[in-house]
Amino acid sequence: MAMRILLVGATGRLGAVVGRTLTERGHDLVTVGRGGGDVRCDITDPEALDALWARVGSVDAVVSAAGDVAYAPFEELERAAYVRSFEGKVLAQIDLVRTGLAHVAPNGSFTLITGVLSRDPIATGAAAAMANGAVEAFVRAAAREIAPRRINVVSPSVFTESLVEYGSLFPGYESVDLADVARAYVKSVEGAATGEVIELP
Ligand SMILES: NC(=O)c1ccc[n+]([C@@H]2O[C@H](COP(=O)([O-])OP(=O)(O)OC[C@H]3O[C@@H](n4cnc5c(N)ncnc54)[C@H](OP(=O)(O)O)[C@@H]3O)[C@@H](O)[C@H]2O)c1
After folding, report:
1. How many other C-beta atoms lie within 10 A of the C-beta of residue 108?
2. How does pLDDT run across 63-111, given as a tens digit for each residue?
3. Rounded distance, CA 65 to CA 43, Å?
4. Where are the domains of the chain?
5. What is the CATH number of domain 4-200?
6. Tens digits of residue pLDDT in 158-198
7. 160 within ligand 1 shell (Cβ under 6 A)
8. Ligand 1 mean position to 9 CA, how many Å?
């Protein structure tokens, strides 16, 4: 069944592939970003999120492929970097769910994004690991309270397509192709799972 889906981060590396995959499956997307997309919105700004929902109305699913975190050696990661990472990846996605609840269909879903660092951290990744772990804990908890609406989080390893930039930070890690990550979003949006952390590979 074709769904109306709000996709945050559609201009990004991951979001572009997720958007293309969901569109090819017949869904109708409303794309969101700070600098591009059908609607401009910074999801770290709760007032901007309220304005986004007022403009977009109802959807069947909300999909996030966004989230900024700081990377630096542990001794250089200052408190402000943790706060920025928490706001950029954790609170931003929690607020997307919190403000979106009234606008998602009764049997609708949320799909958020984290990453491998919560379970297999790298050097320079303490703030990212913190953020990913917090989002995953939130998703497990929220699933119990928002049924029959569903919520999952996709937690991929480094993308094969990102190895050129970040590969040296992930020595010996198995990468994951963006096409496989996009399939995990399809599983979350179209399937029956809830409260799941979909780990890839
Ligand atoms: N790259 C990897 O190997 C990898 C591996 C595992 C997990 N991840 C995670 O996957 C996610 C996407 O990664 P990526 O490599 O695709 O990043 P990216 O290319 O930088 O794309 C991020 C997208 O999110 C949007 N965005 C960021 N912050 C936003 C905000 N506050 N409000 C609205 N839109 C926002 C950006 O658009 P605007 O700038 O226009 O807002 C952009 O479209 C991140 O959470 C990342 O941690 C990445």
Report:
1. 23
2. 999 999 999 999 999 999 999 999 999 999 999 999 999 999 999 999 9
3. 12
4. 4-200
5. 3.40.50.720
6. 999 999 999 999 999 999 999 999 999 999 999 999 999 99
7. no
8. 6
